[in-house]
């Protein structure tokens, strides 16, 4: 790993130079962060679970025609991805009131929203990823109007798919954060889904009990994060039902 050229390191992932031009290797760390990295910890096994869950979701999104940067999983912690130019926006899709939306609007957490809501945040850790409007995005050149349209259209498709996927295994998709990138192919450029989709980036509640199966367990000092992530993987059919939880990395279904 040390011989590879490191391109970028974020809170939860490292990007390395890929084996071919236009590719990168995305490595999932066990680091857990919250509140713009003010709270930090290392939780063994988290990166393995996020890698496998994200692979499962991106593979299915590719299959239904949603363009993504994902190519294939390489091992327990790494994926081969296409190199993209990341659009400096976090795109948040909300179906149920929770987190910052509840605080901002005084909504009781768990309230079903009248319709799905898409919000944009400017990706800037120093500023705390502030909420921005489309006017800000176009005025400062972070994305063109057509790119915003493409992003919103893809976000809705991803939400429709994820809602059904999780509903089928007894999980309520409360909200999620995704990122997009520009994929350059010859003289063409298109918007594709990037980053990851995992319990790190989604709020997932058990339909029957409202038990949290996501990173809120870390944010709110609830404990049991790896157990919750493993439960999500089990329900998705990624981890064997009879496989005991192992914090050093679960045995995965081949």
What's the short story on this structure?
This protein is of the alpha+beta class and 254 residues long. It is built from six helices and 14 strands. Strand 4 (31-34) and strand 5 (39-42) form a beta hairpin.
Description:
The chain has 254 residues and is an alpha+beta fold. The protein has a domain at 85-206: D-amino Acid Aminotransferase, Chain A, domain 1, CATH 3.30.470. Helices cover 27% and strands 32% of the residues. The chain has six helices and 14 strands. The strands form three sheets. Strands 8, 9, 10, 11, 12, 13 and 14 form a seven-stranded antiparallel β-sheet that branches. A five-stranded antiparallel β-sheet has the order 1-2-3-7-6, with helices on one face. A two-stranded antiparallel sheet has the order 4-5. Strand 10 and strand 11 (131-132) form a beta hairpin. The longest helix has 23 residues, at 145-167. The radius of gyration is 18 Å and the shape is globular. The two termini are 24 Å apart. Mean pLDDT is 94; it is low at 249-254.
């Amino acid at each position: 790993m040390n011989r590879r050229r490191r391109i970028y390191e974020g809170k939860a992932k490292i990007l390395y130079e890929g084996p071919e031009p236009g590719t990168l290797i995305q490595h999932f760390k066990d680091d857990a962060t919250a509140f713009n990295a003010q709270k930090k910890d290392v939780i063994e096994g988290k990166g393995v679970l996020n890698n496998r869950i994200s692979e499962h979701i991106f593979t299915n999104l590719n299959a239904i025609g949603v363009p993504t940067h994902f190519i294939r999983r390489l091992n327990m912690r790494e994926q081969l991805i296409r190199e993209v130019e990341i659009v400096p926006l976090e795109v948040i899709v909300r179906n149920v009131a929770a987190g910052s939306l509840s605080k901002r609007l005084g909504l009781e957490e768990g309230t079903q929203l009248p319709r799905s809501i898409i919000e944009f945040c400017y990706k800037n850790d120093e500023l705390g990823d502030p909420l921005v409007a489309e006017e800000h995005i176009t005025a400062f050149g972070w994305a063109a109007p057509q790119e915003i349209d493409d992003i919103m259209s893809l976000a809705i498709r991803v939400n429709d798919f994820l809602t059904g996927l999780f509903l089928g295994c007894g999980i309520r998709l409360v909200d999620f954060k995704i990122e997009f990138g520009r994929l350059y192919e010859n003289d063409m450029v298109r918007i594709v889904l990037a980053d990851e989709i995992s319990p790190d980036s989604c709020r997932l509640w058990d339909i029957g009990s409202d038990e949290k199966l996501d990173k809120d367990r870390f944010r709110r000092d609830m404990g049991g994060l790896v157990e919750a992530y493993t439960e999500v993987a089990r329900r998705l059919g990624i981890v064997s039902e009879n496989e005991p939880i192992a914090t050093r990395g679960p045995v995965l279904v081949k």
